[in-house]
Amino acid sequence: MSETFRMEVATPERLLLAEDAQEAQIPAANGYLGILPGHAPLMAELGTGELSVKVHGRTLYLAVSGGWVEVLPDHVRVLATLAEAPSDIDLERAQAALRRAEERLKHPEPGVDVARALNALKRARARLDAASHK
Ligand code: ATP
Predict the structure, then answer these.
(1) What distance in Å separates the CA atoms of residue 122 and residue 126, rounded to the nearest whole number?
(2) Cα separation of 76 and 36, whole Å?
């Protein structure tokens, strides 16, 4: 069996990654999917988090949020609503978004949409995690 699989990560606007990968960790909506070559076919909803891909022994990181993942034995396609490489990420903005979301969740004032704050918190954490490998 091949030691790699084709890995693509795209948003509707751009292709972020197309490489022969050795392994990948993908934040699906129900938890992390660990992918190696020859994985059983599946479709999953993409969650929010840090996606990592090992290419030629080096691990690449992206922050992703929402979308779909298609896994085939030799090919993985991630179509993400949002996907950012560490170089795209403004750390201070993500830190400010994290503080804002934490504050909203700790002291929810009338009119605060808790689900929205929780999603903002997850996006900020995903950005900070992915950017920590800059
Ligand atoms: P913020 O509250 O800082 O706007 P957010 O999570 O609400 O963060 P999104 O709605 O997810 O922001 O994204 C809006 C746009 O801003 C997207 O194009 C996204 O890529 C970009 N963006 C958001 N946060 C950052 C960041 N920290 N660094 C770079 N781009 C960002």
Answers:
(1) 6
(2) 10
Ligand 1 touching residue 90 (CB < 6 A): yes
The response to whether residue 89 sits with its C-beta less than 6 Å from ligand 1 reads yes
Which pTM value belongs to this model?
Answer: 0.93
Q: Which two tokens stand for residue 65?
A: 């949020």
For residue 14, the CA-to-ligand 1 centroid distance in Å is: 16
pLDDT score recorded for residue 2: 87
| Residue 86 DSSP code | G
22-68 per-position pLDDT tens digit: 999 999 999 999 999 999 999 999 999 999 999 999 999 999 999 99
Q: How far is the CA of 61 from the centre of ligand 1 (A)?
A: 17
Q: Which residue has the tokens 């903005």?
A: 93
Q: Dihedral of the CA atoms 115, 129, 85, 93 (nearest 10)?
A: 60
**Structure tokens of 27?**
């934040």
Pocket residue to mutate for ligand 1, from 123, 128, 132, 134, most atoms within 8 A of Cβ = 123
